[in-house]
Amino acid sequence: MNTLTGIEDIIFPPRCVVCGELMERHYSTPLCLNCMRGIRFITSPLCLSCGIPFSAEQENDHLCNQCLTEKKPYAVARSVARYEGIILSAIHMFKYHGKTGIG
User: Fold this and answer.
1) Which of 64, 66, 81, 90 could form a disulfide with 47 if both were Cys (CB 3.0 to 4.6 A apart)?
2) What is the 3-state secondary structure (H, E, C) of 12-81?
C-alpha cells in the first residue's frame, strides 16, 4: 500500500458501493466481502451459445432449446453472474447514478 492511499483511507475510509459498509481496506472490487458472497456467479452447466445456466448441476455444457432452434446474431455470449440482487444494484448504480468506479 502506498502512503497516499493509507492517508486517504484514514480521511475517506473505503465503503462498499452497494451496501455502504465500511471496508477494512481496498479490495480488487468496490464491493465488501458480504456483498461479494451474495453474488450468484454463473458456472457450468450452461448453454454453449447464449450462456444461460441450466438448473441441473450434473449436466455437461450444451445448447439450450432456443439456441438449437433459432440462429443468434452472435457466436457466443457470456455473463459473469445472474442479473439479480447485488449485481443488479451495482449495474444500476453504474448506469444510472454515475458510480463509474464500479466498472
Assistant:
1) 64
2) CCCECCCCCCECCCCCCCCCCHHHHHCCCECCCCEECCCCCECCCCCCCCECCHHHHHCCCCCCCCCCCE
